[in-house]
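Pipeline run #58 for the internal structure catalog. This entry was flagged by the ingest filter as a single-chain record with no existing model, so it goes straight to prediction. Upstream metadata was stripped on purpose; only the residue string is passed forward. Reviewer on rotation: M.T. Logging verbosity set to normal.
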Amino acid sequence: MRRLDMPERPDWRSKAEQVGFSFHSADDRPYWDETGAFGFTLEEIEERIEAPSAELEEMALEFVGNACRDEEILTRLAIPRAFWGEIWESWQRGDRNLYGRFDFAYDGKGPAKLLEYNADTPTALLETGVFQWLWLEEMIGKGALPRGSDQYNSVHDKLIGAFRNLRNGRAYRLHLTCLDDSEEDRATVAYLEECAQQAGLSTQFLFVNEIGLTKAGKFVDLEEAPIEVLFKLYPWEWMMREEFGKAIPGCGTQFLEPVWKALLSNKGLLPYLWKLAPGHPNLVPAYFPDEAAPDLGPSYVEKPLFSREGANIRLFERGRALSGNEGPYGEEGFIRQQRIPIPDFGHGHVVLGAWMVASEPAGMLVREDKSPITGNLARFIPHFIEP
C-alpha cells in the first residue's frame, strides 16, 4: 500500500456531474480528491481486505441469527420492543439485504482492523462504483497509471445482479425514498434506481414525507398505489421511533434494507463480535461501559450506538477525554472500543471502506481526514491495484 501524487484532470468536475456525481465538492473544497491515489498489490486486496470482509460478514450474520430472539441483546442494542417480532420474522423469511460497508484501519503492514459496519444507509456508492472506475480507465489511457492496473471494484455489476435476484422473475414496482434535504442522498438513490432499472425492475421515486398510510395500515405512494418493496436511504433507528413507524409491523411492505439490518447498523455489534471471536486479527477489543474490559486499555474511543459521519464520537486517553465531534447522538447509550492508530500517509488519517453487496465482497473506497475521527469533510481518494 502506497500513496502517490497524481495529475488532476482539469475537467473532472464536469465529468463528475455528467454521471450524477454532483456533490463532488463541499464548502468550496473538493470531496473527490484525485491529486493523489493509493496503490495496492493484488495480494493485499485479496488477502487483507476481501477475504476478511467475507469472514466478518459471516460472523455478522451469525450474530443476527443469535440476537434476533435474544431479549437481552435486543435491549442492549436499544431496539424498541415493538419491533422484536418483526426482526425475527424478517430473518426467518430470509428477507434479502442489498449492501453495506465495513470501515477498516489498514496501513499495508498488519491486518485490517474493523472500526465499524455501516450496514443500513451508507453512501459513497456512486463515486465508488462509477466515477472511481472512470478515473482508472482515463488514467491508464493517459499513461498516468501503468497498463495492466486494475481496481477492487465490482460494485456496479453486483448491485445490478442483486436487484435482479430480488426481482426473482416477479413483476412489481420498486419504490425508492430518501429525505428531501440532502443532495448526496438523492444522487445515491438515483444511482440505485438506475441499477434497479438495468436489472429489469420498474421503479418509482418519492421522498420520505410523500409516503402515505391507508386506514388499513398499508403504505402507498402519491398515486395511492401500494408500496410492495421499498428501498429507503433512511435509518431504521429513526423509523422505529417515529409515529409513522408504528405501522411498519404487519404493513406488508418489503424493506431494503430489511429490518434485521438494524442489528448490524448499531455500534453495539462491535462488542458482540469481540465476544464471538476474542483476539480475532481483524477485530478491535470493544465493550459496553458496564462490562469488565481487561484488554480495552487506558486509551479508547467512545461511540454512540447510533452515530453517523463521526458525530458524538470521543477519544479518551488514560480515561480523560481528549477530543470529540458534536452531534445529536448518544441518548441510547455508548460502547467503548480500544483506540488504535489510524494510518496517516502524510495527507490525513486513512480509512478503507470495503463494500458488501448481497453479503458478498464487492469493492473499496479510501477516505482521508485531518482528524482521526472520520467525518463528513473526509476526502475520497481513488485507488488502483498495481500490475
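catalog note: Residues 2-266+343-385 form one domain.
catalog note: The longest strand covers residues 360-369.
status: ready for reviewer M.T.
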